[in-house]
Design brief:
Length: 97
């Protein structure tokens, strides 16, 4: 009977040691996750600033492209009017000759 109790107690001690090891492992993993989360929280404002900077740069590039397109369109309209005028002059003076 004594050997049976000693064996059962030994098994309980081994099982408790295993559970303690599991708890320590989980605690270590939770600490690593907490540190990672803390680092992310610290770097998040920097990431947001970078995203805002990229968005503003894209917006600026889009605005400059629109302005360039407007200028190009104005030049095209001016050239088109000049070509129309030259056509008219050519027809007018070609018919005299």
């Amino acid at each position: 009977m004594f050997i049976f109790v000693l064996t059962c107690n030994s098994l309980i001690v081994i099982f408790n040691c295993y559970l303690l090891w599991q708890i320590l492992t989980i605690k270590k993993n939770l600490n690593q996750l907490a540190n990672t989360l803390e680092n992310l929280e610290k770097s998040l404002p920097l990431t947001l600033q970078l995203m805002e900077l990229n968005a503003r740069r894209s917006e600026y590039q889009s605005l400059t492209l629109r302005k360039k397109y407007e200028v190009l369109q104005q030049k095209w309209e001016t050239l088109f009017m000049l070509v129309q005028f030259l056509k008219w002059l050519y027809r007018k003076y070609h018919s005299w000759g």
